[in-house]
Amino acid sequence: MRIEHLGIWTYNLEGLRNFYMHYFDASSSEIYYNHSREFRSYFLTFDGDCRIELMEMPNIPKSKNDPIKQHSGIIHFAIQVGSITRVKELTEELRKDSFKVISEPRITGDGYYESVILDPEGNRVEIVA
What we know:
This protein is an alpha+beta fold and 129 residues long. The chain has two domains: 1-59, 2,3-Dihydroxybiphenyl 1,2-Dioxygenase, domain 1, CATH 3.10.180; 75-129, 2,3-Dihydroxybiphenyl 1,2-Dioxygenase, domain 1, CATH 3.10.180.10. It has two helices and nine strands, in the order βαβββββαβββ. A hairpin with a 5-residue loop joins strand 7 (101-107) and strand 8. The longest helix has 13 residues, at 84-96. It is globular.
């Protein structure tokens, strides 16, 4: 078994799609639009098997979770960028572009080299070597 995709609700479908395409080299499907539900989505593909589905639909409530604090439920996902150097470079590029870095590049207790940033919707993204 494997995880096929993760779904993320957004109020800015095009903006979030562009974020992952620009910073993480994701490729995107064509937009899916269900007119009766006013539902729109894209599937983003990376180098691996797991995809992200970005979804937008009116009246989806905003999350009450504070993205800086830990909370129950899914708290982050990780994108592997291939090297320690790339983790450092991408973290600095995101910081320069005014994205929040909530954990600086470092070696974790379980041996990962990673940083953690917030995407435009406040989702935690681990950037790992």
